Amino acid sequence: MLLAICFSNGTFVTTDIETGQVRGYRIPTSSGGDLDIFLGIPFAEPPLGNLRFAPPQEKKSWRPSVFNATTYGPACQQPLHFLQKYSFGKSFSDVSEDCLYLNVFAPKNVSSPDQRFPVMVWIHGGSFRYGSGSEYDGRILAAKGEVVVVTINYRLGALGFLSTDDSVTSGNQGLLDQVMALKWVNRNIQHFGGNPSQVTLFGQSAGGSAVSLHIFSRLSEGLFQAVIAQSGCALSPFSVYRPPHSIRTTTRNLALMLHCPVNSSQSIIDCLRQKSAAELSITYPQHPDMIAAFAPRVDGYFLHDTPEKLLQRGEFNHNVNVMTGFVPNESADEIPDDFNAKGGYDVTQYNSLVTSWSRRFLNSDHVRSAVTCFYTPSESDDQKNVQTYMQNNKCLYVVVLGIIHASELYYLFGTPLFHSEACPGDQNVTCPQIWTSYQHWDDLDREISETVILLWSSFAKMANRGRRPKETWRRTALKDLESRSLTIETAPGVAADQARWKSLVDASST
């Protein structure tokens, strides 16, 4: 069943929250219910001036005014050229240092208007440098999953994670923004029909790492009951700075590139506060491999130690349901350049390459052994050459090497379920095209989308000991991990292949 949502039939709706009244949309859905949409609600004061590089401050009241929550707020400052290059950034027309806004998509049960729905708070990915909550339209997930969906912004890059590794600027501002947003949800979501005692954090890639880092933070305890970490977790090599690397070195490199004095932490910060937000977002200093230049760190406040050490000591929130996973051959797109030697590798060169890569991961000795075992099979040379040959063409290796990173988000947010005519475009909110203009969605795509929405929302409904949904997730253990995991897959078909080549032809002719 397709879910049609038409803004032309929508009406304005107002609700009262802690800081004042907000006005949004109420629209009907084809399933017979209503959906309330509130966009661009500020959850903290603008982090400008002396608040740059500082923890977020609670938003002041705007009473007696009514806040107009009918348009998205700006994305946090970031280099737009990257997003535009990869086409999924075309929804970004406005970036700003003043960016701490969130969006609420709330279903309404006509027959039971006082019903409280589970809440799902989305934390976007993007290497802690790119992205926005506004990229992800929560209407389909909210309406079909019967959950309140909240998408948030948090500060990115240097503005969100720069640190002098001392009390001058401790870092993790972006994570503290997320904590502030969760506190906002805890205090206000009941006014949108959400249950503040049934909150699920979910995120992908860097967002997946972020949501699981909250499990290890004392600041976040009690603000959520479940986590879904997709293609990233707290133990990922890119999730947090680890010894011997220090973010202070990266901060110093940035200061030097922007001609700031580096004789003290205070002089660095005073100078960087005088630079434009655009300068800070596009200047990318030298930094350790396998992690963004500016990323989470152990600050003794949000995070008291590395996640693996906290896990070993049992110092984490034990009262949280966790679902995590990845797509096949995650990050395989980074490999072909390293394995593209025309003359091949001898044993010494191969071992050196594998050792270099495995050092980026936990339990590197085991990783190195596993990789060596997996990639030195006993087939004939001709058989082993087939995959390598297919990987030579980057138009092909996306298919050969596995599922595209983040491709599951189309299905999670219901992109295949949108009617093309559902959003006429004459309102302030337009139809989303999550990261792409790809239009070829068939019945199988729609079926998979409905399945993913059902499973994710079912998990959210298990976030406390309340009502059990029809489809539930049972607890799993390492001994039966393989048999208890979820795998959704399909073989490539002619129609999908034709559509892929057509999109390449169209792109090359423009």
UniProtKB/TrEMBL annotation:
The keyword Cell membrane does not apply. Its EC number is 3.1.1.-. Keywords: Hydrolase, Signal. GO terms for molecular function: hydrolase activity. InterPro entries: AB_hydrolase_fold, CarbesteraseB, Carboxylesterase_B_AS, Carboxylesterase_B_CS, Neuroligin/BSAL. Pfam families: COesterase (PF00135). It comes from the Eukaryota. Residues 16-492 form the Carboxylesterase type B domain. PANTHER family: NEUROLIGIN. Belongs to the type-B carboxylesterase/lipase family. This is Carboxylic ester hydrolase.
